[in-house]
Amino acid sequence: MRPVWAGHPWVFAQAVEHVDAGAEPGGEVLVVDPRGQPLGRALYAPRSAVVARLYTRRVDEPIDQALFQRKLERAVGLRRAVGLPGVEPGQETTGYRLLHGEGDGVPGLIVDVFGDVVCVQLGTLGLFRRAAAVCDALDAVVGPRSIVDRTPPGLARTEGFDPTGGVLRGEPVTELVFRELGLDFALPLELAQKTGYYFDQRPLRAALARVSRGSRVLDAFCYTGSMAITARRAGAREVWACDKSAAAIEVACRQAERNGGAEGIRFTVEDANLAFAAAAREGGCDVVVCDPPKLAPARGNRPRALGAYRSLAEGACRATARGGLLAFCSCSGAVGMHELERELALGARQAECEAFVVERLFQGPDHPVPAAFPEGLYLKVLLARIDAA
Ligand code: SAH
Q1: Would the pLDDT of 70 be above 70?
Q2: Which end of the chain has fewer CB atoms < 10 Å from its terminal CB, N or C?
Q3: Ligand 1 mean position to 150 CA, how many Å?
Q4: Which atom of ligand 1 is nearest to the CA of 205?
Q5: Could you give the domains of the chain?
């Protein structure tokens, strides 16, 4: 119970001495330490390894609309303090994460803002049952045009419920329209990855805008093309953006059209490894972005995932011109910064070059990490200069 005492929101099954009769799946429970001191109120999930997730340390505060509203107001304050929404000319940002689950003291609850639409993920049975309270709180604090449920069906099933899916409140939504760092996006709702867009990589996009001028850029896992379009707008000479998903590439092309045209950007449906090999044959690119999907979804897949990061690093290093810059990313919480650095070093070795890390980036400030919950830092980016060994 020590981590929980320090503010960690999870209570693991093996740490529980007993559960009072009457505790129901998805219901509210009071968490009490072995000496009888109440630690806070949690939602109960007996089927999960994390049997209780704490929402409040105030032992008399129920987990209801008022609590969600309090957390939302706090989250709005945090975003404002870091410049979100962004209003600076050329940097307008109306798309960002407003509630980041554990990071904002609401385990399992994600809220992403896309202009006047919000998308939610209700990651537990307890939250699913409280969907109306969550929506009421959002109406009171944000007042969106529509609230859309984007809980991944697989996640819902493991938690023991059928997600509603689609619009929970407001007008029908077909597109998510928003701006990020001055770029203009309209993403079809059915392009379902996460809640629709990777807001967590905003810091890398800002970095790319600084380093891309005059360069040849390869964005090997481009999804909606946001990195590629950022690089081109920042003055990249040529950009090659690929993704193995044809649907993503089609959407990416349309985003380029919205932002000054696709001229100078080549979009292809392609496997990243083949793109790396092709770029290597042509002498390498000056800037390479390697942002794969999560390779270690859980701790158990870690050994295999580390090998996968190494071989990706090898390919990406070969695709980077000597003296060029590689952005090597991992969104696997189970893989730490030092492990990622090690795989980059070993991959570089296999590619007969050396990688010098010049900058480390993380998920942006709209994905906060409580000091008591360090595992919340899932996204790591190594910006490395690649040179001859
Ligand atoms: N950099 C993007 C997010 C990338 S998400 C952004 O900032 O928006 C990972 C992407 O990798 C997904 O779009 C997925 O379709 C794609 N992908 C997965 N495996 C791939 C592979 N082997 N080759 C190319 N793309 C792949």
Answers
A1: yes
A2: C
A3: 19
A4: 7
A5: 2-56 (2.30.130.10), 65-179 (3.30.750.80), 198-388 (3.40.50.150)
